[in-house]
Amino acid sequence: MTMEFTDRLTRVEPSATLAISALATELENEGKDVVDLSVGEPDFPTPENIVEAGKDAMDAGHTGYTTSAGIIELREAIADKLADDGLEHTTDEIIVTPGAKQALYEIVQALVGEGDEVVLLDPAWVSYEAMVKMAGGDLTRVDLSETDFQLEPALEELETAVSDETELLVVNSPSNPTGAVYSDAALEGVRDLAVEHDVTVISDEIYKEITYGVEPTSLGTLEGMEDRTVTVNGFSKAYSMTGWRLGYFAGPEDLIDQAGKLHSHSVSSAVNFVQHAGIEALENTDEAVDEMVEAFERRRDMVVGLLEDHGVDVAVPDGAFYMMLPVDDDDQAWCEGALEDAHVATVPGSAFGTPGYARISYAASEERLEEGIERLAEEGYL
Ligand SMILES: Cc1ncc(COP(=O)(O)O)c(C=O)c1O
């Protein structure tokens, strides 16, 4: 039988990163030692107190369904965290999701329909494009590669891209894949355009806790943005909890009501005992987070220094654990070559909408990072 698949799925391409990870696995199966700088997850174990809280919650019988939006104690802890960031949300304005990815999916499904226009800042995290396409939306992309991935000097381009036709704008600061943290002036520029053209903005703040010497502003704290910002965050990155699948979004109650329908009819809720562990993460894990962030900062400095030694300048990231390495125009071929010849895995910039770069993740030990850079240099890739 020939199955007929829906347009919403056939118009989405398989991720360009798949080719690289398939090749990396093939090489590893052949016994090759691959330095994997392509991963989007911290290399630290989940802090012990969080693991214990998860186990205790299971032992205490927190294994059934929860309220669809998430247990009230976690939503209260999230509301407190958001208040610390200057965002006022009641627990009725928060949905707890299995990962920030599901939060983003639900928001896009709630707001974007066939032919609706969505603006992305490039390079942009791979799944935004796929989510918008699956919802039937059209993308307008603003390239930040000419401005060291900063938004402030590109506000004029953004002004050209945003119009009354724009339904949604996605801002991700600190950014995956660039590590850029947008200045307050840049965010104010976003606010002015959003207010002028009546646009809803997603502020994906999943890397907010991972910054180096800068304090990123939450977009929703700016005057005029309170009722048009949906703030997304999660536990994967700051607390090294990728596999636990826990995230959330907070926004205007009518959006929460609409997205909540999709949430309850699809995932029902996030995992019960994982939600209990999330409370522990938010309330008692600051020290472990600080230690991980300090390690990322040391690695960032080391990688930037090693690249400089090889004559390569990068835009130094102020947050997250990624940086963009300028490579050949055909970045896909560069990444495949770097993997085949130097056994170093990176992600092509074209996967994020910006060819000519490779994303390096420095969520790896200093030893492996050094090894990876040296191999790239030896094989002529730097
Ligand atoms: C920018 C960004 N947003 C959201 C996510 C989703 O994270 P999770 O679903 O693990 O919470 C990621 C993960 O890589 C990300 O990089």
From TrEMBL:
GO biological process, any: amino acid metabolic process
Ranges for domain Aminotransferase class I/classII large: 32-376
One Pfam family in the UniProt entry: Aminotran_1_2
Cofactor: pyridoxal 5'-phosphate
Enzyme Commission designation: 2.6.1.-
GO MF annotations, alphabetized: pyridoxal phosphate binding; transaminase activity
CDD domains hit by this protein: AAT_like
Alphabetical UniProt keywords: Aminotransferase, Pyridoxal phosphate, Transferase
Entry's family note: Belongs to the class-I pyridoxal-phosphate-dependent aminotransferase family.
Subunit and partners: Homodimer.
Protein name: Aminotransferase
Natural source organism: Halobiforma nitratireducens JCM 10879
